[in-house]
Amino acid sequence: SQANHKSVNDSSNPEPLCINPAKEAALHALCQKTGYTIKQENGQRKYGGPPPHWNDAIPGKGCEVFVGKLPRDLYEDELVPVLERCGRIYELRLMMDFNGNNRGFAFVKYCACSEARAALKDLNNFEIRKGRLLGVCKSVDNCRLFVGGIPKTKQKDEILIEMKKVTEGVVNVIVYPSAADKQKNRGFAFVEYQDHHTAAMARRKLMHTRPQIWGHPIAVDWAEPEVEVDEDVMATVKILYVRNLMLNTTEEQLEAEFSALVPAGSIERVKKIRDYGFVHFNTRENAITCLKKLNGKLLDGSPMEVSLAKPVDRETYVSFKVVFLYAGGPIYYTTGVPYGAATIPTLTATPRFAMPSIRGGVTQVPGMVTQIGAAGVPLGIPGATTGISGGQGRGPVQPEKYDLLPDMVLTPTNPLSLKPSQLQKSPIQLLEEYCMKMSLGNPEYKLHSAEGQNGRQLFLYRVDIPGFSSQSVSAKPSSQFTPTKLCISLDVAKEIAASHVLENLSIADD
């Protein structure tokens, strides 16, 4: 089993790391050349950690990057020389499957943050083999869980006490008031743990034991981390994000509050959506002045939470989604809180501004904190932050025919890797065909419902794949799949559920 400890450069443990003798020799040659060791345990292979003759502290936040799109038969002997172009490697963790192949992704921690930034810039889309491009983006270290099903009358302190009773390592809870009644919460909270490992253990425990809090069953999953924005980019932002507003507060009131603190003409635009809004300034200095003086001030009886808006361009956002997906978080191909607690940015304009951290203030460095999840509010209204109105959307795809040209290269393609919109068959049909092909039995759809914020009944299907539950415990994926979106249509809910399963399976099957 790969859970057993193995290492290269350990004469007391000659067990090979690779079935291929040539690759095994290459790994030994790499370790002899660099002085690093390779240790394999718990489904991952560690190169270094620490490197030879290391006497400093472990590199901190911002030094690790995610490397995806790896060929499954690629090992450290090919990967390390590429990674070392950007700096000294502290530790490389290559995720492995039970057949001895890598799982398509790895995490590399450099000795300095500047080296990690160089890797993000230079290695993303690097051609490591002919036609195979690496995907490199910042690593995710998520310490927060989404917990739904909390009674709306409960306050932050009460929720914190209850969560400490059922899990260990809780350091904070984030609770947002209802848009309509600030004395009530929104029915969910974000629970922050001391580190990622503790959060992962808490998630596993809660999902298996299914405890009730105040007699209410709770829903648990990862809170979606916030897209990390470069400090240099944040230093140019002159738009403020204002949340915790009353529904009856108007844009005119909001503008009056901010205008009173800066010279005439300093505010270029104010946009309010439900209980949050954005204020555009002509200079960053004016924005900072208002942030310092208005954060926490009462407006219509509700304390405003003011912070700098965070610009997120589409390319950065998409890469971030990939790393969160592979790092073990919920599969959100469209961003959102599990069970529909919030909606998503449309990302039709660039830049689009994502929700900043829940702690307002100038001094906060952008970090991996909850994005749309922790904000708990939608950001999909075109033009809310950029002043650019959204498009009308694409029309239906028109069938077209293309000539097969002599210089075209035909590549075998796994249908599961395609988006449902690229295929004529529905996700439900594709899932049934896949299960039939793999002898997994017919997918079983179980309908669930929940009440939306406006009282409308929303639907979600959980999907059981019988064949997975009969596989060996050590190697099987979960037999039950729960999508992260609800909708008002039963038919659409079923298609969403099937798509969710296909997206998960496309990760397991290259």
TrEMBL record:
Superkingdom of source: Eukaryota
GO MF annotation terms: RNA binding
Record keywords: Cytoplasm, Repeat, RNA-binding
Domain DRBM stretches: 426-507
InterPro entries, alphabetized: dsRBD_dom, HnRNP_R/Q_splicing_fac, Nucleotide-bd_a/b_plait_sf, RBD_domain_sf, RRM_dom
Compartment(s) where it occurs, according to its Swiss-Prot or TrEMBL record: Cytoplasm
Keyword Cytoplasm appears in the UniProt entry: yes
Domain RRM: 63-141, 143-225, 238-311
Transmembrane segments: none
GO CC, any one term: cytoplasm
Protein name stated in the entry: RNA-binding motif protein 46
Organism: Ciona savignyi
